[in-house]
């Protein structure tokens, strides 16, 4: 297969400027994804996808255009840059003018940590891992056991006519499961995965027996569990659920492109109190347990960005363009799913900074409520313009008189951005972040890898239904 | 010799008994807009080849995007993947040639022509945004602006070939348009998004949609949660389409039936819904999202009843499940991504409408909710049929009249109850949304959580 090393991307940016572009940047991506699906004792899918492609972005008198191609011969690429410039000129009468923020030129090389390349492990060993898990999980009460192994290698090259040169490589590996249980005439299901920005050593380190048996226990218990009647509850969210809450309830609304399009309820609120003073929200590119984003797809180093500090809105997330338009510093949040896609402002790893409660203490302090856990949860969604967000939890527990009591099924939670984070009245000191090689955050049809996490928190009076 | 022919010719050299090559070449122009203006146009050309091979009862898949490189490298990778796979005694091989569905229309000359003139397209997009703003103000908004919009149209060339003699090619067009408008009224600020997701750009139809959707866009100012309780609900057609896709379609998959993760297994020929419900799979709808003459395995698509007057008649089959269940009429094997084998999915799903409009349903409702849009419904559970969604655009109805706009309230229930004993009525306002045709529906006594 062709490689990005075969493409003279420096020459390309020069050629674009010679043809009249004020700015040119080039993204070249080599991507490999391996997926094995083991469905009730049968290898249903085993295979991989490899791709190499290029994205050119040009600015001509403030108007932008993209061109994406997977034909990497010199002739095709030369013709591509000419087409991109023509397209940018065509849009001049209708387009918003771009305003790329200035920043120091970036020259960088980064690679996520790993010790064993999954490519060096034979496929039989990967199938054997799933076969082993299937054996552990097998039970008369589990009617369906679907397992999967995923591995992603993503190498991205970036160059711009400003002189930026960045190469970034990431490896992620993970195992997922979808279990269906049948107990006392009732059915229930649970999906979950464990992933890491790492190599095969992650697979060797995890205690898969414990991992699988815990999930089997959860789905069996939830099959006969009760549902929470729709209404208002005090809830304690676990580490991952807090991350999902922040990602949906605040992260999306803080993305600079939604501010510029007047789509976010946070527009015009910089410096205002938007959450309880216990709340500090951070977006950071490289953090234990999370996705690996040391540079964004415009070559900007990803800073540790504090979006909310002790309840006060302190920063939005930016690309070069949104930073330029809003007179802010670029934060390194310009991301694209692949070489085929345009840049959007996206989160990286979003988390809640810890405080001083202990989880046991927090449960004891809660007279009546629900302990919301992420295992088996379904993610979330938000409408930044109305401020409405939602997310689905995994099975949890009622809290009665300061103790975990009856199990409850997966529930849907709902809130309004400017209300919910004000109702947080306790944050614990424990901390963890989670990512996934099987999914991520979706926006305008693009899915990018993200991490979510933080501490346990208690939210008073949250809308919930099972 | 092109890649497909070379792969077909050389598979036995690599010890593969059978081979299938599925290729998709796509060319599209996409335009994004933000704050009433075009943000950027993009031209995107892609090609993906997905090669499945089998030896005995072991099969595997290798996909390559862009330049394939040497066929030998692909076949060598495929052989190692197949070797690592496990024996599946039910592996039926690849399908024989059974022709294609000649009634299907998936290519629209006008759409293909439109994408050739980038400047004209940009001008048209600007006009669509302007007309939407103008129309929303005409409907009573104080101010309207396009916060975001995207339009992607192009051609997709599907090719499928296998070592059993199947070799078909079908060029299709596609059109995906979404416009999100921010609306200021005297009651407050809200938004509305409408979509056109099919295989055609029909300007008359598009401007009619702008008229229709603009009237809806002005309804939601001053929205707030409702009190928790039981409500009769009126589901707008788009909402019902999404619920059918997210909750019912997985349950109709014969693969999920086979692996005991569908609540519909053992329910064939049994009543699963109200007699008002008739549901079919129809690839012959003209230029809709699921209109395809053959599936991703090269099997001819065909129209079939799935549910007839409430009784389950058929599941959706790919070639594997059709052989396993000895079922008639497969043609529903589609890939969710290139590296994954085809699984059963619908072409176009059609829920037959009845009579009545949203306006009539509102007049007949003493206390209820009209649900125009939700978020999070995709997190519902198809294994149990349990629905969970968050109402973002709703209207509270009291004594036959709209009394308040609603947001931030959750709605939960079970699709087999909603479309079963709780179903009161289906409307005549069937709309095709992303390959799913559904009318509005009235459902009694649904749990809603809010204040």
Give keywords.
heterodimer; A: 466 residues; alpha+beta; nine-stranded mixed beta sheet; seven-stranded mixed beta sheet; 10 helices; 26 strands; 21% helix; globular; B: 451 residues; six-stranded antiparallel beta sheet; six-stranded mixed beta sheet; 22% helix
Summarize the structure.
The complex is a heterodimer of chains A (466) and B (451). In chain A, 21% of the residues lie in helices and 39% in strands. With 466 residues, chain A is of the alpha+beta class.
Explain this structure.
The complex is a heterodimer of chains A (about 475) and B (about 450). In chain A, about 20% of the residues lie in helices and about 40% in strands. With about 475 residues, chain A is of the alpha+beta class. In chain A, strands 8, 15, 16, 17, 18, 19, 20, 21 and 26 form a nine-stranded mixed β-sheet that branches. The longest helix of chain A is centred in the first third of the chain and has 17 residues, at about 75-90. In chain B, about 20% of the residues lie in helices and about 40% in strands. Chain B has helices at about 5-10, 70-85, 110-115, 120-140, 205-215, 235-250, 255-260, 320-325, 360-365, 415-420, and strands spanning about 20-35, 35-55, 60-65, 145-160, 165-185, 190-200, 230-235, 280, 305-310, 310, 335, 345, 350, 365-375, 385-400, 400-405, 410-415, 425, 430-435, 435-440, 440-450. In chain B, helix 4 runs parallel beside helix 5 (about 205-215). The longest helix of chain B is centred in the first third of the chain and has 21 residues, at about 120-140. Chains A and B meet through strand 1, strand 2, strand 3, helix 2 and helix 3 of A and strand 1, strand 2, strand 3, helix 2 and helix 4 of B. Strand 2 of chain A pairs parallel with strand 3 (about 60-65) of chain B, so a sheet runs across the interface.
């Amino acid at each position: 297969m062709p490689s990005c090393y075969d493409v003279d991307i420096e020459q390309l940016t020069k050629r674009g400027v010679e043809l009249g572009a004020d700015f040119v940047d080039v993204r070249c991506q080599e991507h490999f994804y391996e997926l094995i699906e083991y469905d009730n004792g049968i290898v249903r899918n085993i295979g991989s996808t490899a791709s190499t492609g290029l994205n050119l972005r040009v600015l001509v008198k403030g108007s932008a255009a993209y061109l994406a191609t997977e034909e990497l011969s010199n002739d095709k690429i030369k013709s591509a840059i000419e087409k991109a410039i023509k397209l940018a000129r065509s849009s001049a009468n209708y387009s918003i003018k771009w305003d790329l923020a200035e920043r120091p030129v970036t020259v960088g090389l980064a690679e996520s940590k790993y010790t064993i390349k999954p490519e060096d492990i034979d496929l039989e060993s990967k199938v054997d891992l799933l076969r082993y898990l299937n054996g552990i999980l097998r039970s008369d009460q589990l009617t369906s056991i679907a397992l999967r192994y995923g591995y992603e290698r993503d190498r991205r090259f970036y160059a711009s006519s400003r002189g930026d040169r960045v190469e970034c490589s990431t490896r992620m590996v993970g195992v997922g499961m979808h279990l269906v249980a049948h107990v006392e005439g009732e059915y229930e299901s649970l999906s979950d995965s464990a992933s890491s920005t790492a190599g095969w050593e992650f697979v060797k380190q995890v205690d898969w027996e414990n991992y699988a048996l815990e999930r089997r226990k959860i789905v069996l218990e939830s099959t006969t569990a009760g549902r929470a009647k729709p209404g208002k509850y005090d809830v304690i969210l676990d580490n991952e659920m807090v991350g999902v809450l922040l990602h949906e309830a605040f992260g999306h609304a803080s993305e600079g492109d939604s501010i510029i399009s007047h789509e976010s309820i946070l527009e015009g609120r910089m410096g205002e109190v938007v959450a309880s003073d216990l709340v500090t929200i951070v977006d950071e590119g490289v953090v234990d347990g999370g996705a690996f984003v040391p540079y964004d797809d415009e070559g900007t180093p990803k800073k540790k960005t504090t979006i909310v500090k002790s309840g006060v809105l302190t920063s939005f997330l930016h690309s070069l363009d949104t930073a330029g338009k809003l007179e802010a510093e670029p934060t390194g949040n310009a991301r694209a799913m692949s070489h085929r896609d345009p840049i959007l402002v996206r989160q990286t790893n979003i988390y809640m900074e810890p405080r001083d409660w202990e989880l046991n203490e927090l449960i004891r302090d809660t007279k009546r409520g629900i302990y919301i856990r992420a295992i088996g949860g379904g993610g979330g969604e938000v409408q930044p313009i109305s401020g409405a967000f939602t997310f689905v939890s995994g099975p949890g527990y009622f809290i009665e008189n300061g103790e975990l009591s009856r199990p409850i099924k997966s529930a849907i939670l709902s809130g309004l951005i400017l209300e919910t984070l004000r109702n947080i009245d306790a944050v614990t000191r424990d901390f963890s972040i989670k990512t996934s090689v099987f999914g991520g955050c979706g926006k305008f049809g693009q899915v990018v890898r993200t991490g979510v996490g933080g501490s346990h928190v208690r939210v008073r009076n949250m809308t919930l239904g099972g | 010799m092109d890649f497909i022919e070379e792969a077909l010719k050389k598979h036995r050299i690599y010890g593969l008994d059978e081979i299938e090559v599925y290729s998709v070449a796509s060319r599209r122009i996409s335009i994004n807009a933000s704050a009433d203006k075009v943000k950027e146009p993009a031209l995107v050309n892609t090609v993906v080849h997905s090669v499945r091979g089998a030896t005995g009862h072991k099969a595997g898949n290798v996909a390559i995007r862009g330049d394939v490189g040497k066929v030998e490298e692909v076949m060598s990778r495929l052989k190692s993947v197949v070797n690592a796979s496990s024996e599946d005694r039910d592996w039926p091989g690849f399908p024989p040639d059974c022709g294609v569905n000649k009634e299907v229309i998936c290519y629209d000359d006008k759409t293909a022509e439109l994408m050739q003139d980038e400047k004209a397209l940009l001008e048209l997009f600007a006009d669509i945004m302007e007309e939407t703003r103008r129309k929303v103000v005409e409907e009573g908004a104080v101010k309207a602006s396009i916060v975001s919009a995207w339009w992607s149209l192009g051609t997709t060339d599907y090719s499928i070939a296998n070592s059993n003699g199947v070799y078909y090619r079908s060029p299709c067009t596609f059109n995906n348009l979404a416009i999100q408008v921010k609306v200021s009224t005297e009651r407050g600020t809200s938004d509305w998004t409408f979509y056109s997701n099919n295989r055609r750009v029909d300007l008359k139809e598009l401007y009619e949609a702008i008229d229709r959707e603009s009237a809806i866009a002005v309804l939601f100012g001053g929205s707030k949660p409702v009190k928790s309780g039981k409500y009769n609900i009126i589901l707008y057609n788009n909402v019902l389409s999404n619920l059918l896709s997210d909750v019912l379609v997985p349950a109709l998959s014969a693969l999920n039936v086979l692996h005991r993760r569908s609540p519909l297994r053992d329910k064939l020929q049994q009543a699963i819904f109200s007699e008002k419900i008739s549901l079919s799979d129809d690839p012959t709808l003209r230029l809709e999202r699921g209109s395809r003459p053959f599936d991703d395995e090269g099997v001819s698509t065909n129209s079939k009843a799935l549910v007839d007057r409430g009784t389950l008649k058929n599941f959706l089959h790919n070639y594997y499940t059709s052989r396993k269940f000895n079922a008639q009429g497969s043609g529903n094997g589609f890939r969710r991504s290139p590296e994954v084998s085809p699984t059963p999915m619908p072409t176009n799903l059609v829920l037959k409408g009845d009579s009545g409009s949203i306006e009539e349903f509102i007049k007949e409702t003493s206390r209820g909710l009209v649900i125009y849009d939700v978020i999070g419904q995709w997190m519902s559970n198809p294994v149990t049929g349990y629905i969970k969604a968050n109402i973002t655009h709703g209207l509270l109805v009291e004594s036959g009249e709209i009394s308040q706009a609603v947001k931030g309230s959750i709605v939960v229930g079970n699709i087999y109850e909603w479309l079963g004993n709780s179903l009161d009525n289906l409307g005549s306002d069937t709309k095709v949304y992303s390959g799913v045709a559904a009318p509005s529906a009235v459902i009694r006594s649904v749990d809603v959580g809010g204040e």
